[in-house]
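Re-run with default settings, no changes from the original entry. Doing this only to confirm the output is reproducible before filing.
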Amino acid sequence: MSLSVSSLVLRAKQLELEGIRHLAGRIELVDVIGQLIHALQRERGATSIFLASSGQRFASERQATVESVTPIEARLRELFEAQLAPEAGASARMLSLMAWVVLDLDALAGLRAQTVGHTVTAHVAVTAYSRLIAGLVELLFHVADATLHPGISRLLVAFVHLVQGKEAAGQERAVGAQLFASGRCSEAEQQRVIHLIDAQERSLHVFEEFT
């Protein structure tokens, strides 16, 4: 094939379209991750109250949150699988972060069974959910950072910090619910709440700067 202006322009257009498809895929991935984080935060809060109250409160609410997580988790796994295709352009780091998220998602069934059987404490359960959510937030950071379109990248970074601030608020809510349901509040737990409030302020300040 001989080199020509038309062949160069055609290839440039093809690469531009590929870039747009990659960007659309990443935006969908970010959207579903955000949905799953929100659903897991609700499940974490309901689980915290359920366990701290020895199963006397939020039994039906907890089950409802579990059911809301299931379809979103299934969709995220589909998107993860799509990233295995060479044309998806996923980096080694991105796939590694996905692997850690899948490990924690696979462990959810065991954690839920322990919750129903009251063989896990509220503190341990909240920590497990928070670790999974932290992995999802880290994946969000990587996807936002890897986006080449400056305008979209800026919006994604803003979104990530909003999610991070929301997660700190979610942890504050979960810890507060746990303390309220248990009727106990140590000085260490009070400091934990203060730390989470400070984390919210930092994340939302960055969000404000990027928007």
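The mean pLDDT is 89. Residues 44 and 127 are 9 Å apart (CA to CA).
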